[in-house]
Design brief:
Blueprint (H helix, E strand, L loop, with lengths): L2 E6 L4 H12 L6 E7 L5 E7 L9 H4 L5 E7 L14 E2 L5 E7 L4 H10 L11 H12 L4 H10 L5 E7 L6 E6 L6 E5 L2 E5 L6 H6 L3 E6 L4 E6 L2 E6 L4 E2 L4 E4 H4 L9 H7 L1 H9 L3 E2 L4 E2 L8 H6 L2 E6 L2 H17 L3 E5 H4 L10 E7 L5 H12 L3 E6 L5 H5 L2 E4 L12 H20 L5 H12 L1 H10 L2 H10 L4 E6 L4 H15 L2 E6 L15 E7 L5 H12 L4 E7 L11 E5 L7 H19 L18
Parallel strand pairs: 18-19, 18-20, 20-21, 21-22, 23-24, 23-25, 25-26, 26-27
Antiparallel strand pairs: 1-4, 1-10, 2-3, 2-4, 5-6, 6-7, 7-8, 8-12, 9-10, 9-11, 11-15, 12-13, 13-14, 16-17
Helix pairs in contact: 3-4, 4-5, 9-15, 9-17, 11-15, 11-19, 15-16, 17-21, 18-21, 19-21
The chain binds 5-amino-5-deoxy-1-O-phosphono-D-mannitol (M6R).
Length: 620
């Protein structure tokens, strides 16, 4: 969602905050703004509509000098992207600046009370009430800190908020309510930074020779940053002792490494992401899955009655693949559910239900809320997640980390294949532990997975075929992606990748369902992407392709190398190596990503930051 950065120290705050905002831009890029308290104690604000670099366009004129300030990069919820709605928001007397990530659920009620008390508003945001609430508290004689805390106690909803006061050139307050957004805090050498996420802290970690101690704000906690140090407290003002965590530069470094886009870099990192996901979880000598971090005992695993996999967007598509894997290899009934729907249902969850949440960020509001519901109902809960210390990892009984490194491109790529790798390991582990998979089958499955980094590397070694296909297909304005069985969710993911980065309408459908409606769409203006690797349903998909060709549809297929049967029927084909069924989803994903990427480039799209999106959706 939105990104928050704050700095207090001895250096000029502007470049540090600006750099932090650039690093957090993946969280939202509808508008950006910075407020600095200058040397005279005056509060000065600069804003831009659109991306953070807009703040830099007239750098000399725009840069403000002063060593304390706040910045914000916005993903719009209340109020369209505009200068007025951009943060920081200031109070009536331009003394208090506030930045905010999340939603103030009772803002209309608070706004009316403030208007009745004489406050006037200039924006359409919920955030603006926060500045006026702090102002109101100070008018009542409270200190800045106390007024800030009082404001926190008046709010409903999930959010992270930070504020700075004019004249108070050495203090920043921040607090966190609920699960909508984190606040991380670093302090070193008379300087302190807060951020919505670790990359904002890089300037201090640099100074600390590659590593630094980082505090993570929990819900209901507040922090006050000064040059002298960092004080944590609860919302009653009681001091809190917080154990910081050592964070290294590698955990926060964000770099395109020479690639044109983060998305391409992250696609190229997929062989490594798969290998990292397997590290320490596969015994390569015995060819068995060992899950040292698995949170259930053998007896609890034996007692399991069903598995429910939940996630949103790409992570939901991973859950849908996971459902096949758990049914087939884990020997357990499995369901896959969209977390945004599941959270509002009243599902049966018993003590022997294992719920597996999947999420790159571990902060997606719908996923976190669904997890909380599962916890409240007494289900067992694990998360497959890429972000240590995230909400998901805190709520779950245990976390199976993806270890993919930061994913910056808004389109999920390497974390999708990492999720699929871990879901494979989980299914094999459950099957082996419950006695539904024998040792030799387990070994065969593990062998298939261990070849995956090499096979994916081969697929990525030559990108010319993807570019060529993209040139042929970039002209289409409608796409239908078809797949069956374990490959059906890859059709959904292929459609999601294409639509989110190219803005082309694309739909993913189970190929067997086509004759029940979507076949009516087939004409020469729609591209059909048929995913037909050699698997147990290959013949069925081949029939579906023939049905399309009989109606003059244009078909791009993903086939297994050496396929001579379908290759003659389709208009264009991309090939993946022959591989066992459980690893096919990861292999088929690669051409989907690469074609989507190159079509988006040909359409001149903002690949890493597509319009209207944000990397983690921490509001409902
Ligand atoms: O962080 P999460 O995996 O929970 O995010 C869920 C979705 O917002 C996310 O997967 C989204 O669909 C992708 N970025 C699309 O590529």
């Amino acid at each position: 969602m939105c990104g928050i950065v704050g700095y207090v120290g001895k250096q000029d705050a502007w470049p540090i905050i600006y750099e932090g905002l650039r690093r957090l831009e993946y969280r939202g890029y509808d508008s950006a703004g910075i407020a600095i308290v200058n040397g005279q104690g005056d509060l000065q604000v600069r804003k831009t509509v659109g991306k953070v670099h807009g703040l830099d366009e007239t750098t000399i004129a725009n840069q403000l000098q002063g060593s304390v300030g706040l910045g914000h990069t916005r993903w719009a919820t209340h109020g369209r992207p505009s200068h007025e709605n951009a943060h920081p928001h200031i109070d009536c007397q331009s003394r208090i600046a506030v930045v905010h990530n999340g939603i103030v659920e009772n803002y209309l009620e608070l706004k009316q009370q403030l208007i009745d008390a004489g406050h006037s508003f200039y924006s359409e945001t919920d955030t603006e009430v926060l500045t006026h609430l702090v102002e109101e508290g100070m008018e009542q004689g409270l200190s800045f800190q106390d007024a800030f805390r009082r404001m926190g106690n008046l709010l409903k909803g999930s959010q992270a908020i930070s504020a700075v006061l004019q004249g108070h050139d050495s203090e920043i307050c921040a607090l966190r309510l609920g699960h909508a957004g984190g606040i991380v805090v670093a302090h070193a050498d008379g300087q302190a930074i807060i951020g919505s996420d670790l990359p904002a802290l890089l300037p201090l970690l640099k100074a600390e020779s590659n590593a630094g101690q980082v505090g993570f704000l929990e819900t209901g906690e507040m922090v006050v940053l000064t040059t002298a140090g960092v004080q944590y407290q609860d919302l009653d003002g009681n001091p809190i002792e917080k154990e910081p965590r050592l964070v290294t530069q590698e955990e926060v470094l964000v770099d395109k490494a020479g690639y044109q886009h983060f998305m391409l870099k992250e696609i190229m990192e997929q062989p490594q992401a798969v290998a990292s996901a397997m590290r320490e979880r596969v015994n390569f000598e015995t060819r068995q899955v060992v899950f040292p971090d698995f949170p259930l005992t053998s007896q609890e695993i034996a007692d399991l009655e069903r598995v429910v996999l939940i996630g949103c967007g790409t992570s939901l598509n991973a859950a849908l693949v996971g459902r096949y894997l758990v049914e087939r290899y884990g020997g357990l009934p499995a369901e896959a559910e969209s977390a945004s729907e599941y959270r509002y249902r009243d599902p049966f969850i018993g003590p022997n239900t294992l719920v597996v949440s999947i999420g790159q960020s571990g902060e997606t509001a719908d996923t976190v809320a669904a997890m909380q519901m599962v916890k409240d109902k007494g289900g067992r809960l694990i998360t497959i997640c890429n972000t240590e210390g995230s909400q998901a990892s805190r709520i779950a009984d245990g976390s199976l980390y993806m270890r993919s490194g930061i994913e910056v491109g808004v389109a999920s790529t390497k974390t999708f294949v990492a999720s699929l790798t871990i879901l494979n390991l989980l299914a094999i582990f459950l099957g082996k532990s419950r006695g539904t998979l024998d040792i030799s089958t387990t070994q065969e499955l593990v062998d298939g997975l261990t070849k995956l980094p090499r096979l994916m590397g081969d697929l990525l070694a030559d990108i010319a075929p993807y570019k060529q296909v993209a040139h042929e297909y970039a002209k289409f304005d409608k796409f239908l992606f078809l797949g069956r069985g374990i490959i059906a969710p890859i059709a959904y993911e292929g459609a999601l990748k294409l639509k989110e980065i190219s803005y082309i309408h694309a739909e993913g459908y189970p190929a067997g369902e086509m004759k029940h409606g979507p076949i009516a769409l087939v004409d020469n203006a729609i591209a059909i992407v048929a995913l037909a690797p050699k698997d147990s349903l290959y013949d069925k998909v081949a029939n579906n392709v023939k049905e399309v060709k009989a109606r003059d549809g244009c078909v791009l297929s993903v086939l297994t190398e050496g396929d001579t049967q379908l290759a003659v029927d389709v208009d264009h084909a991309l090939y993946i190596p022959d591989a066992p069924e459980h690893v096919l989803p990861m292999l088929v994903t690669v051409p989907m990503q690469m074609v989507a990427y190159h079509i988006a480039l040909l359409r001149d799209r903002d690949v890493d930051q597509p319009r209207n999106l944000a990397k983690s959706v921490t509001v409902e």
